[in-house]
Amino acid sequence: MDDSVHRGIVIRQSNYGDAHRMLSIFTEDSGIVKAVRYGVRGKKTSNAAAFQLLSYGDFKLRPSGNGIMTAQSADIIDGFVPVSEDIVKLALVNYFADITYSILGEANPDKRILSLFLNIVYAAAYRKDTLSKLKCVYELKLMCAGGYMPNTGACVECGAEPEYFRPDSGCFVCASHRRKGDVYVSPGAVSLMRYVTGCPDKRMLAFSTVDSICDEAGAAAERYISAQCGREFKSLSYYKTVKSI
Questions:
Q1: For the segment 158-205, what is each residue's pLDDT rounded down to a tens digit?
Q2: What is the arithmetic mean of pLDDT over 104-116?
Q3: 8 Å CB contact between 152 and 205
Q4: What is the rounded average pLDDT of the residues 17-31?
Q5: Quick one: three-class SS letters along the chain?
Q6: What pLDDT, on a 0 to 100 scale, did the predictor assign at position 44?
Q7: Mean pLDDT (whole number) for 136-144
């Protein structure tokens, strides 16, 4: 079996055996694939940084019979080091990786979602946007790209102005039609959610607002993701914990 080059970014890593590392690489052509880099944790390894979380570049991968590739080499374009050096940013990006994995699964190429992920990691590393802003924007854009675009129009029950978001169905409702579990959203948060879900991807961060509005939109979005994925995310809980310290 021949080696092939895959451009992508490492979105998960874990130790494997005594000196190896298991990687999940989000690639352009094959989606999320698993690959082992043998001996990368050994004392004599000189290129370990090329095979770690958030390494982005061209990976030479060799297929194997068990469906897990072998990482032969890597030509790294960016490692997004400022994220790795900030525990709160790293926790948030780990959450982004978790929800991306949950929505997309393995071996499902999706250039739009890959572009969104790369852009949000770039923003976390090099832009000055707040983490609250990055969180709500990626959550909402990921759901749109993954086929779960929320309905951000008027109340679905009566057409009135919305005051709550319903996570199980992804729609707005008014106070009169509020149910248990619906999430409050102020007019500012409603406007933000409408903007992010409707704007071109390249304009997703082209707005200014206060963190409290982003937090409201993010609270609704995270509940929506959890409801659609049918699970809670430990990485989200960890992010909230380290952010509050």
A1: 999 999 999 999 999 999 999 999 999 999 999 999 999 999 999 999
A2: 97
A3: no
A4: 93
A5: CCCEEEEEEEEEEEEECCCEEEEEEEECCCEEEEEEECCCCCCCCCCHHHHCCCCEEEEEEECCCCCCEEEEEEEEEECCHHHHCCHHHHHHHHHHHHHHHHHHCCCCCCHHHHHHHHHHHHHHHHCCCCHHHHHHHHHHHHHHHCCCCCECCCCCCCCCCCCEEECCCCEEECHHHCCCCCEECCHHHHHHHHHHHHCCHHHCCCCCCCHHHHHHHHHHHHHHHHHHHCCCCHHHHHHHHHHHC
A6: 64
A7: 98
DSSP bridge pairs for 32:
26
Sign of the dihedral defined by the CA atoms of residues 135, 138, 141, 145, in that order: negative
The larger pLDDT score, comparing residue 223 to residue 3, is at: 223
Q: What is the pLDDT of residue 46?
A: 61
CB 207 within 8 A of CB 192: yes
Give the C-alpha separation, 189 to 203, whole Å.
Answer: 17
Q: What is the 3-state secondary structure of 101-112? A: HHHHCCCCCCHH
Give the angle 183-212-154 at the CA atoms, nearest 5°.
45
pTM of the model as a whole = 0.96
Q: Which residues are 92's β-sheet partners?
A: none
Read off the tokens for 230: 């049918």
